[in-house]
Amino acid sequence: MMMGVLVGIASLAVLSSLGEATKRETMQRFKNMLGTSDAIIVRPGGGRTRGMPTLVNVPPTLTFEDANAIATELPEIKAVAEVQNAFDIDVKYRERSTSPAIFGVSPRWLALRSEVVADGVFFTAGQNDSLARVAVLGLDVSKQMFPGEEALGKTIRIADVPFEVIGLLKSRGAGPAGASLDNVVLIPIGTASRRLFHRDFLTMLIAQVRNPERNNEATAAVAALLRRRHHIQPQALDDFAITNPAATMGHVTRAGSTLAKILTGVSIMALLIGGVVIMSLMSIAVSERRKEIGVRRSVGAARRDVVLQFLFEAVIVSVAGGMEGVVVGWSGLQAVTRWQRLPPILIWQPFAVAIVLSLAIGIVFGLYPAWRASRVDPIEALRS
Amino acid sequence: MIELEGISKMYARGEHGVVQALQSVSFCIAAGEFVVVRGASGSGKSTLLNILGCLDLPTAGCYRLDGEDVAGYSDSQLARVRNAKVGFIFQSFNLLPRTTALENVEIPMVYSQGTVDRRRALAALDRVGLVGRASHFSSELSGGEQQRVAVARALINNPALILADEPTGNLDLAAGSEVMGLLTNLYQEGRTILLVTHDDAVAAYASREMCLCDGIVVSDRARVANLGGGAP
């Protein structure tokens, strides 16, 4: 008799937990990539490049001067970090070699993120200006190149240019696409553009907004500035693409919500069916227990006492179903998170809501049988 | 103690109009009396019992129980009167199934004080000689034992009036006289008992005998109670 409530509660709890967890995980992944969720990303080439932009697949339209202008002319922007990156570049240390992503980043990159250097130091503005050949390794790279060895102070060769390892990054986990963000080598962007890549345009710039509440306004301001600097006519399309993680997260949440709505509808149906089953079984119980009702009335139970008794019983049944639903839902949730490789979910609110909901169902659907119980004529019930 | 003045009860019966179950019944019962009410079936005995027990309200007349005029009482007020002042004993015992003897005795306390006083319930069971059966389910008890549990339940809230409806009707002779012995003891202690029966042997225990016929009290006389028990 508790099955309907059990199924309904279990699926509702799982759904809302999963929805909440997916939202949190998506935000976390953006945060992993950007260090903050209050930053916007600008890429060259009107959003037509697919996948991760690199020096070989972007047009040379986004410049160091653009970055400088965004940082100095727009009050909405707190800081800007320029990025030049490339893949498939060999990194060697003695006989070991690997091909991580090479990121030339501005020293301000550190200011955009908090606590990223686990060991050693990050490069300074001075090192960037003097084109110092220093590198900070991601966790995957340092593990691969220096298994069980001290990496700091060693010299690695990036495309045959020697770099000294001065720092090790903290693990950042997975990015929005699910790939590891630790398979990277960071070098000063000055060094990258003049000594390694020999390119004077950017693949990406990260702009941290001053007020995260006004992300959209900041995005518009950056777009307007770039259009002006790039002399783009009003009817022409942008030659750059801006990603606003806050807005993207909104899309992710909305995409999930259609499915969530359907499933929520199904679980509400299950709950209603559970409620109706409780109602009919309680009604049967009332007719089977007419004699008990008569006895209770004869020894001093008022109608109100009878109502409360049967209501209480309905609530007990319903909440018991709800609790089992929570247990089933919780186990289901653990299975799903393992399967989806989400981090363990510790969200109790949906389960609390589920218990309250089953309580409400017990009351709503127990009310009619309880009222009928109170209308049993004790004289007639005792005569039989 | 108990005063009835012009009590009438009418039932609507389909197209045949009304049935007059009681017609202007008036009598008084003093504290400590053991009254037996007799009469053929349909004479109004049960209706009288239900009104005396506050399960039903009269159509007309005044009923005063232990100084309280129950006319116009609400459902919960009547429930309180039943709980505090009336103890019912039924022909078919009416214990709750799947419930122990002790728990059955405790039920009236639930409605009077919200909590149960286990010691008092055990004392009541001791009174009817069944303290050893306290934890037995009602289905595990014999008919006589069930009726004694019912007597204990009727006594638990120390009522002003004990109402018994054919209490021996479903019992064999031995068990029946045991129950009647219990009621006699209660009478000797000064409790007020009203018993409905058409069994002469049972009527012999009472101190006053009333006969009903067609909703009218046709005779009401004192008699010498047979305190020794058994048929006269």
The portion of residues forming beta strands of chain A comes to 15-25%
Query: What order do the helices and strands of chain A follow?
Result: HEHEEEEHEHEHEEEHEHEHHHHH
Q: Classify the oligomer.
A: heterodimer
Low-confidence stretches of chain A: none
Helix count, DSSP H or I runs of 4 or more residues of chain B: 7
* Sheet with most strands: strand arrangement of chain B: 6-7-8-3-9-10
Tell me the radius of gyration of chain B: 17 Å
Structural class of chain A: alpha+beta
How far apart lie the N and C ends of chain A? 29 Å
Task: State which percent range the strand residues of chain B make up.
Answer: 25-35%
Number of strands of chain B: 10
User: What portion of residues of chain A is helical?
Assistant: 40-55%
Radius of gyration of chain A: 31 Å
What portion of residues of chain B is helical? 25-40%
Topology of chain B as a string of helices (H) and strands (E): EEEHEEHEHHHEHEHEE
Model description:
The complex is a heterodimer of chains A (384) and B (232). Chain A is an alpha+beta fold and 384 residues long. Chain A is 53% helix and 16% strand. Chain A contains 12 helices and 12 strands. The two termini of chain A are 29 Å apart. Chain A has helices spanning 3-34, 64-73, 109-112, 125-129, 139-145, 189-196, 215-229, 245-288, 290-298, 303-340, 349-374, 378-383; strands at 39-44, 77-86, 91-93, 96-98, 101-105, 117-120, 134-137, 155-158, 161-169, 184-188, 204-209, 240-243. Helix content of chain B is 32%, strand content 27%. In chain B, the strands form 2 sheets. In chain B, strands 6-7-8-3-9-10 form a 6-stranded mixed sheet, sandwiched between helices. The radius of gyration of chain B is 17 Å and the shape is globular. In chain B, 45% of the residues are buried. The model of chain B has no long low-confidence stretch (mean pLDDT 91). The A-B interface holds A 291-292, 294-305, 378-379, 382-383 and B 46, 50, 53, 55-56, 75-76, 78-80, 82-84, 88, 90, 94-97, 107-108, 111-112, 153, 157.
